[in-house]
Each structure stands twice: as structure tokens, then as C-alpha cells.
Write a structure and sequence with these properties.
Layout: H1 9-28, E1 46-49, E2 67-68, H2 70-76, H3 80-89, E3 116-117, E4 120-122, E5 126-128, H4 140-150, E6 177-178, E7 181-182, E8 189-194, E9 198-203, E10 209-213, E11 229-235, E12 238-244, H5 248-253, E13 263-272, E14 275-283, E15 292-300, H6 309-313, H7 315-334
């Protein structure tokens, strides 16, 4: 993260006032009683917003500190306006009149500062290892690249068929990270619905939904799925969801932090009114020296909108039909 000087005073006031409000909220949380469903389990249902400026790994600019003060954040973390200006200046995909291929700032939802957990401003989602860095094996990245290469479609030209496009362009999975949940540029919302036997966890982005059976076992003949196979259980005040059996194509063509052999354990807990604490642990011996854990808070969301994705994917036939017309025109001109 680049240090930008000249942080607007209103940003500092906002950070200070927000911290005071969070501290007051945490003090009142001592009397908070975790809500429970009519069948007696922790009630984590609702729509939740996980937008944040915090990064997965801790930037060296924070000198190893997991928690910083509002004053320090104002010094080190650019405001949204500064961040957007910096992206545009470097030619990255950012809002602005000179970049017609990008979204404007109306669509970008990343908040104006770091996310907090229990009233403390966090510099990374990774809380273990304590340095805030993902513990890659020495050969971890090579292993990941080899896994990708085994399932890649490099022999298919992009416009030869839908398989030549990334999974997100085919509207199969999201380009943002939804297992574990970490923020993207926009649509950082998810919804949880519970029943006595199942839980549904749906991400706003591409309408990705996981149907999680409660107190079930993984099948011995488990079929790999987009976002894996999940089972859940309740432990104290938490909903715990364990996921494995990821589709190898997701590893090859998608993003995320795991190989097809990973196990991800998520923990959902209402920590205070309208706030969902979310922890995840990733175990992946193919890639990492040890299991690592991240944590963030989600706030009650204002709502989830339909993510149409190519308006029903009508654009894909148009792209491919255009490519066929170009090929026909080139063949005719060569005759």
C-alpha cells in the first residue's frame, strides 16, 4: 500500500468519530445475547456486507502491526478519492473520463478506510501467522502453477468456443472471492438462510449459493463442485462450515487461495447487534507450510440485488457469432 500525504481533515475526523462509536458499541456488547432460532441454534441469518479496504495480507507499511489507531490509519491509508486518482494515474482499471473501459466510482464499494474487528482497525485479514503473511511452501507457487497447467485450455483460442473464456466471463463462478469471503470492488454482500437441516450461503456476485447440510458427513464418492462440497455443524455460538472437494477447473481457470485438495473451515458468529464475525482457516499442504487463518466483520447489509451476468449470458453467443463472421470474412478475402 502506498503512503499518501495530505490526507483530508474530514477523513481523519471520520476515522476518529467512527472509532469512538465502535468503542462505545463494544462496551455495550458485554450485555449482548446471541440470537437463537426457534429450534435453538445460533441465528446468523440475514444479509451481510463485507466491503472493506483491508487487504488479505499485511502490507510492510504497517511495520508488522495487526491493529493501528485511527490517527495512524489517516496517515497511511489513502482516502477513496486518493485511491481512485492513484489507480487512474498508473493506468489501472479505475474510474475516470480517460478510461472508458472501466466502471466509474458510483459502482465501486470498498469503503473509505480499514475494516475493524471488535472496534480495532485491522491491517490485514490474516491473523495467523502473526506476521499477517500467507505461509507459502517454498515450492507452493510452483505446485499451484502445475495444478493450473494440468487443467488449462491453452490450446483453445479465446473465441473458438466458450471454454476459451475465464469462468467468470462464462458466468459460472465469481471473479471475487466467496470462499473464503473477502472484498472485491463491488457487490460485497452475502445472505445466510437457516433451516433445522440445512443452511444456504449465497453470494451476491454471480448468485453463487452453497447448500450446506447440517450434521452430515462428506460422501465417500464426493463429486468435485464449484466452491467445493460443504457440511456444517453448530459449536457454541458459532455456525461452522467445512468445505473440500473443489472442482479442479476452478483451480485452473479461477482465482482464490486454494488448490483442489484444500479444506476450508469457516466460522460465523453474531458478535453484537447487526454484526457478524467471520473467521476462516485454510489447510492446503500442497501449497502452504501450515494452516492459516483470517478474520473480518460483516455489517448488516442494506440488501442484495440480482447479478444478471451478461443479462442471462446473451453476450456469449454474440461474441462467438461475431468471431465466426470474422473468420468467414477472412476466408472469403483469401479466395
Amino acid at each position: 500500500m502506498t503512503m499518501l500525504n495530505g490526507t483530508p481533515r474530514n477523513f481523519l475526523r471520520l476515522a476518529l468519530s467512527g472509532s469512538a462509536m465502535l468503542a462505545c458499541t463494544i462496551a455495550l456488547a458485554n450485555d449482548f445475547e446471541v440470537p437463537r432460532t426457534s429450534w435453538g441454534v445460533p441465528d446468523v441469518q440475514g444479509m451481510w456486507d463485507y466491503s472493506s479496504r483491508t487487504s488479505m495480507e499485511r502490507s510492510p507499511v504497517f511495520e508488522g502491526a495487526l491493529v493501528i489507531s485511527p490517527e495512524r490509519m489517516a496517515e497511511l491509508v489513502p482516502s477513496f478519492e486518493q485511491w481512485a486518482e492513484a489507480l487512474e494515474a498508473t493506468g489501472a482499471e479505475a474510474p475516470g473520463p480517460d478510461n472508458v473501459g472501466a466502471y466509474n466510482s458510483f459502482w465501486i464499494d470498498i469503503r473509505d478506510g480499514l475494516g475493524s474487528v471488535d472496534g480495532e482497525l485491522r491491517t490485514s485479514f490474516v491473523i495467523y501467522p502473526e506476521d499477517g503473511r500467507i505461509p507459502w511452501r517454498e515450492d507452493g507457487r510452483d505446485n499451484r502453477n502445475a495444478q493450473r497447467a494440468r487443467m488449462n485450455y491453452d490450446h483453445i483460442e479465446k473465441n473458438a468456443g466458450p471454454e476459451g473464456f475465464p469462468l467468470s466471463e462464462r458466468c459460472l463462478i465469481s471473479f471475487s472471492s466467496v470462499i473464503p469471503f473477502t472484498p472485491s470492488l463491488y457487490n460485497n454482500n452475502m445472505q445466510i438462510v437457516q433451516s433445522p437441516t440445512h443452511v444456504v450461503i449465497m453470494a451476491e456476485m454471480v448468485n453463487d449459493a452453497r447448500i450446506v447440510p447440517i450434521d452430515a458427513e462428506f460422501s465417500k464418492n464426493m463429486i468435485p463442485k464449484w466452491h467445493g462440497n460443504s457440511v456444517g455443524y453448530y459449536e457454541g455460538d458459532e455456525l461452522v462450515v467445512v468445505t473440500k472437494g473443489f472442482h479442479p477447473l476452478q483451480v485452473a481457470r479461477g482465482g482464490g487461495y486454494t488448490s483442489e485438495n484444500a479444506t476450508i473451515t469457516e466460522r460465523f458468529r453474531i458478535s453484537r447487534e447487526n454484526v457478524l464475525n467471520y473467521k476462516f482457516t485454510i489447510e492446503d499442504p500442497d501449497l502452504y507450510r501450515e494452516a492459516w487463518t483470517g478474520e473480518l466483520e460483516m455489517k448488516q447489509s442494506e440488501g442484495i440485488y440480482e447479478y444478471a451476468c451478461h443479462e442471462g449470458n446473451y453476450a456469449m453467443p454474440g461474441i462467438l457469432a461475431g468471431a465466426r463472421l470474422e473468420e468467414a470474412a477472412q476466408a472469403q478475402s483469401s479466395n
